[in-house]
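Protein Record: Sequence and Backbone Structure Tokens
======================================================
Scope: a single protein chain, as residues and as a discrete description of its fold.
Tokens: labelled as protein backbone structure tokens, with as many entries as the chain has residues.
Position: the record begins directly beneath this header, with no further notes in between.
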Amino acid sequence: MFPTTGAVDGADTAWLLAAFALVLLMTPGLALFYGGMVRSKSVLNMMMMCLTAIPVVWLLWVAFGYSMTFGPDRGGVVGDPTTFAGLRGLVGAFGADGSDAGAVPLVGHVPALLFVAFQAGFAMVTVALIAGAVADRMRFVSWLVFAALWATLVYFPVAHWVFSVPGLTAERGGWIVEHLKAIDFAGGTAVEINSGASALVMALLLGRRAGWPRDPMRPHNLPFVMLGAGLLWFGWFGFNAGSTLAANGAAALIVVNTLGAGAVSMVSWLIVEKVRHGKPTSFGAASGVVAGLVAITPSCSAVTPIGALAVGAAAGAISSYAIELKYRWRYDDSLDVVGVHLVSGVVGMLMIGLVGSASAPAGRDGLLYGGGVDQLWRQAVAVIVVLGYAMVVTLLIGLVLKATIGLRADPQHEADGLDDGQHAESAYDLHVRGGRLEPGR
């Protein structure tokens, strides 16, 4: 029966409480990361798009989203949305003094409600990731409706295919890991490829920003970008290592792998940037870190620390090339969601089939460790299925919204900036006083 009931493990619970906080921090971190990348006239709009993913997803998650993701399997497609609707059956019983009464619903050895909150953080940041591709031109109300529909129709089903609870996968689905036997420890498909593929579709549906690529549209605040990248890196330790649901040796290895992949990916990106463009940049450093973290997300339990370095090196180099494809193919992915998240997510999934090691917790050898191509083809199938599903369903959602409430902001709002047009605010309110610029009051 899922969940079981019993006494919680204090160490595992303490670790997951910390990991939950780290994961939740990633969405504000992403808001800073993306907010620094856009022009100054749309920074508040971008940060609002990221932060509103938290309440939109949480309301859906409590109502039916958690149940769709982790409820009993229905046809191999989605979990039963009614089993845990309203988090029914997950609270447990408490004594008169407020202490546990010995009947706490558990996932593994931690309270089921804590697992609910932890996994909600994954859904929140995944929805927010898509905002980077539609920056500067999507109506805010349309974004909120899109976020709700996308989480329900794309994220919850794909997460059901991917995320598993040890020993309980067969009962509640997870066909990608249970039946296909692909490895995706913390969401290379459900989080990264899912959001990246959907971002590409939405960028194409919305069309290019006015003036792109003719006019320069540089990041307006690189310190924001660097700070956001640092917060994302910090939160990613909870994202990856917290997915063990235990304070154990596997979590320790995953922390080391997450650190190594992010670090080497930064170096790899900067080397390519130096060779191709003459100078390494802070923007490239921040992007390189995120590319490596994306790639190690699915592979963190499948590779050794040396393998993690290879994953990071590949992700940084490949993504640094991939972000420039939008200029060749003329699609306006404003903040490089496709080049970083989709591409590095694919790299991370496929690298498992190359440098996966049986000595890592996942226990399977890749091609370069003598395992042949068996794991590689399984990883490739998982990538193709998730990419295809995300693109098709996102296209349908986008077309419906475009034909009904509309997707694109008013041209005048775009010209003036979405901060003013959509929110009647300005991030940097400067007035001329006494012949000089002073902060507005």
